[in-house]
Design brief:
The chain is an alpha/beta fold and 179 residues long. 45% of the residues lie in helices and 10% in strands.
Length: 179
């Protein structure tokens, strides 16, 4: 981590330093997951902690940093995922929208649907490598955590999403922005 965490930093600064911080705050303290427990980007960590049962900001930051380090263990580098896919050792599950998937995709990736979810849960081996792909890596960890919570023991999120794949593995794969 490059930034120094402090109770005086804004929530926006915290989320920039640790993109998984919101997921960790919600999981650990029920902060930031919905309208009733949300926070504003300009609020400081100390302010958010004060109005959430007087949490100790330093303790909360340490817990968030630890949780984010655990999340990082679920990331897989694009080149590592490409090698596993080429060797037939991984399944790639693309969680982007149908439009994004139809526009650009990793070869052999399957588009995530509710119907496929039923098949995955009922039939796929829970110890096979499952690589989840989103656009830029922001939602992939949420999906990986979901599958891990349902017993999948070798689930990973593609670090940087398909955007990183196009930069590091297949430059011919077009990059895009979502409006």
């Amino acid at each position: 981590m490059t930034a120094t965490l402090s109770p005086e930093m804004t929530m926006q600064e915290l989320l920039q330093a640790l993109p998984g911080a919101q997921r960790a705050l919600f999981r650990l303290y029920h902060i930031g997951g919905c309208a009733s427990c949300g926070f504003r980007p300009e609020e400081t960590v100390a302010e958010v902690c004060a109005r959430n049962e007087g949490l100790d900001p330093a303790e909360a930051l340490t817990a968030v940093e630890t949780a984010c380090a655990e999340d990082a263990k679920m990331l897989i580098e694009p080149k590592e995922a490409a090698a596993a896919l080429a060797d037939g050792e991984a399944r790639v599950l693309d969680i982007r929208t149908r439009e994004e998937f139809d526009a650009v995709r990793i070869p052999h990736a399957q588009h995530f649907t509710q119907e496929l979810l039923q098949t995955i849960m009922g039939e796929w081996p829970k110890d096979d490598l499952l690589v989840l792909v989103d656009h830029q890596g922001a939602r992939g960890l949420d999906a990986a955590a979901y599958f891990a919570g349902h017993g999948f023991t070798n689930v990973r999120s593609l670090r940087g999403g398909i955007d990183a794949w196009s930069l590091e593995v297949d430059p011919a794969l077009p990059r895009y922005t979502v409006e």
